[in-house]
Design a protein that fits this description.
37% helix; alpha/beta
Length: 131
């Protein structure tokens, strides 16, 4: 069995988190995708929803991944970029913070991006059911 490897696109340059909006000038998505092509064995990319992919660039991202010979692996909701979640989001001891995380719009957006990238609509049905 051949092992397959993937990485988070942001490992190549996105430098923000809940404490800092950026440590340096971030490279463009196109530049990071070019860098991935030089890393042996990496065939897939994990994207951060609202950072790497959004409603405005889902079609372009699908093409960019295909052009780079890379496969989409997953989309991570970008909750960690919000200071409100510094002590956790879905697992916070504060019920208001947990509710904010559940109601955050990006999980629904992430399912839309997933459908755009893969054409698989079954995930949208799971999201509607709250699974």
């Amino acid at each position: 069995m051949k092992r397959k490897y993937a990485m988070i696109l942001g490992n190549l340059g996105n430098t923000r988190d809940s404490f800092c909006s950026g440590y340096k000038q971030n490279p463009s998505t196109a530049e990071m995708l070019r860098q991935v092509q030089d890393i042996p064995l990496v065939e897939g990319i994990e994207l951060v929803g609202t950072w790497d992919i959004d409603s405005h660039n889902a079609t372009e991202m699908k093409k960019a991944l295909a052009d780079a010979g890379l496969q989409y692996i997953s989309i991570i909701p970008g909750l960690f970029g919000d200071q409100a979640y510094w002590k956790g989001s879905y697992t916070s001891s504060d019920p208001a913070i947990r509710r904010k995380a559940v109601d955050w719009p990006a999980p629904n957006s992430c399912t839309t991006f997933y459908v755009s990238l893969t054409g698989n609509r079954s995930i949208r049905e799971l999201a509607r059911k709250g699974v």
